[in-house]
Design brief:
heterodimer; A: OB fold (Dihydrolipoamide Acetyltransferase, E2P); 5-stranded mixed β-barrel; 6 helices; 7 strands; 33% helix; B: disordered N terminus
Chain lengths: 256, 336
């Protein structure tokens, strides 16, 4: 790969990173906290691209004597228009960098959805403690919060309360619907689902990966995730309405 | 310029990698590639719209996007070491005897706040700067495992189990130092075949600095892409329920999680949370996951091949793996 082409690749990676972090695209792949780092990395890569071109343009004057010497040594006769006879070229592996650029700019794959969720065991952990529920009826809470209380607190504070949780739909092989939120600690490679089973008045037709805002009440019903034997609590649905996917599709786990 | 360079291009030119006799201009190829892909984006999008492909692409892009900032950090540090830090600094900073330099370098790993992607280029720069390879490899192994960010993440992921943090720190440092001493004993420098680097003599500091950055990003980045593809394939294709079967057997469990750590190639800042969720496994097995993962995984292996050569990586990686498992079991038996 010639230095010009390398500069172009560096520029494109930097540009793709900046594009992803200025739009909300990056939230599909990494946690929100990584954004400043992505911005810095994007800027550094673009500066590196500009510097490469800059030094490449200046090079013939600065290193003329040396370049001529190099050229005479370069017996394989490789002569690039940019060459100045560098004996060294980047390996072909650098071409692979085109893949993530194309994937990010052209395809922009969606956030992890029901396919990954049903292949991975629920990551529900016993919470450290339970704060008092906020006021309001129905009370809006995160899906992970509800799952933790329902599975490990016997739904103590949840009785007689209407609860509102949001997540996307996933169906298991038997067709049981689950409401899922993926938890993310760093990037989508470590994304893990927290699942809540839907019981009661579930909508007749459920399309996987559609986002639902479910209003319902606590039920003691539980099941075990066949993948890792984790606890999956249920919610007794009274109303379910489709909503657009949230800005950050993941729940940032790790308690941090 | 040395005489060896003038010799007919033979042998060790595989990394230089210019197709013999090819006169194709790579800028032109790149432009054509981009044009073709843009023209075909409809069919391409359709081809990758199945759930498996989508999930594969998501994980692939995620691993690359997540690793790039740390790679850039490592590459900048490596360029600083290569250009601005005089070689004599390391001669003074590290003990003369490699046997002593190893533990010092191991503890030095605690100050590089990043994940493993940053440590490979830095270790490469250290070797080129004349640091004893044994010490540089110890640093390479310890830095991603024992820095404050990773240890804090471990403490958060295992609430109420501070012994897990201690065990991770002790086991990782032990493996890193053991590998350093082992290299000093058995290692041969001819295994190290770092790819040719751009000539930086006679260039200004700025040109040398950005030349190093460009080279490292292109190089390590390419290998990072290979590692990300492998990790995405595992995540999207291999069913997680396979793991479940091994959880009950204590020996199999340790091995299974160690292998999983290699295959998953998760960033060392996040692996503790994944380990915490593998609750069906023993703490020792999860410790093996945390010790092995930052030291050797698919992405790291690919990057080590790129930085130090294949001969090195093929020998270094399996020994690191075996030692990592062994030390985790021992430390787990004592501390957990």
């Amino acid at each position: 790969m010639s230095r010009q082409a390398q500069a172009a690749v560096l520029f494109l990676i930097g540009g793709a990173l900046l594009h992803a972090s200025f739009t909300d695209l990056y939230l599909r792949y990494v946690k929100a906290g990584l954004r400043p780092l992505l911005l810095v990395a994007g800027v550094v890569l673009i500066v590196a691209a500009v510097a490469t071109v800059w030094y490449e343009l200046r090079r013939p004057r600065v290193a003329k004597g040396k370049a001529a010497e190099d050229r005479s040594e370069n017996q394989s006769g490789i002569e690039h228009h940019d060459g100045h006879g560098h004996a060294h070229r980047e390996p072909r592996v650098a071409w692979l960098l085109a893949l993530p650029i194309l994937a990010l700019i052209l395809v922009a794959p969606p956030a992890l959805g029901s396919y990954s969720a049903m292949r991975t065991g629920t990551a529900l952990q016993k919470p450290w403690g339970f704060e008092d529920l906020p006021a309001g009826d129905p009370v809006r809470m995160s899906l992970v919060d509800y799952a933790g209380r329902a599975a490990y607190d016997q739904g103590r504070d949840l009785h007689d309360r209407q609860i509102k949780i949001t997540g996307f739909v996933a169906l298991d092989r038997g067709g049981t619907p689950y409401l899922v939120r993926m938890e993310l600690n760093c990037c989508a490679a470590d994304g893990q689902p927290v699942k809540v089973g839907l019981a009661g008045k579930t909508p007749p037709v459920l399309q996987p990966d559609t986002w639902l805002e479910v209003t319902g009440t606590y039920t003691g019903k539980q099941t075990r995730d066949p993948v890792n034997d984790g606890v999956i609590p249920f919610i007794d649905v009274t109303e379910a309405k489709p909503v657009p996917a949230p800005r950050d599709p993941y729940d940032e786990g790790g308690g941090g | 310029m040395t005489i060896t360079k003038a010799a007919p291009p033979r042998g060790d030119r595989r990394d230089v990698d210019e197709p013999r006799g090819s006169r194709v201009d790579s800028s032109l190829v790149l432009i054509m590639l981009l044009l073709v892909v843009v023209a075909l984006q409809g069919p391409i999008r359709e081809a990758v719209s199945t759930p498996v492909m989508q999930s594969w692409m998501t994980v692939f892009v995620a691993v690359v996007v997540q690793a790039l900032p740390f790679l850039v950090l490592g590459v900048l540090l490596s360029a600083v070491i290569a250009v601005f830090v005089p070689a004599s600094f390391f001669a003074r900073a590290l003990p003369k005897r490699p046997a002593l330099a190893v533990p010092v370098a191991g503890m030095g790993g605690a100050v590089l706040p990043g994940c493993e992607c940053a440590s490979v280029p830095v270790a490469g720069a250290l070797v080129r700067r004349g640091v004893a390879p044994a010490a540089a490899f110890t640093f390479l192994l310890s830095a991603p495992a024992i820095n404050p960010i990773v240890l804090t993440a471990t403490a958060v992921a295992f609430p109420g189990k501070p012994e897990m943090v201690l065990a991770r720190f002790v086991a990782s440092l032990l493996v890193a130092c053991a590998m350093g001493w082992l290299w000093q004993r058995l290692g041969r420098t001819d295994w190290l075949r770092p790819p040719a680097r751009p000539e930086s003599e006679g260039l200004g500091k700025g040109a040398a600095f950005w030349g190093s950055v460009r080279h490292d990003v292109m190089h390590a980045g390419g290998f990072l892409v290979i590692g990300a593809m492998a990790a995405a394939t595992l995540k999207a294709v291999v069913p997680a329920s396979w793991l479940q079967a091994t959880a009950d057997n204590p020996v199999l469990a340790v091995l299974a999680l160690a292998v999983l750590a290699v295959l998953l190639s998760i960033c060392s800042e996040a692996d503790a949370f994944v380990a915490a969720s593998l609750s069906q496994f023993s703490l020792t097995a999860r410790l093996a996951f945390l010790v092995v993962g930052p030291m050797i995984d698919l992405k790291l292996f690919a990057m080590q091949v790129g930085t130090f050569g294949r001969g090195f990586a093929l020998r270094f990686a399996p020994v690191t793996f075996a030692l990592g498992v062994l030390v985790s079991v021992l430390v787990g038996a004592v501390l957990l």
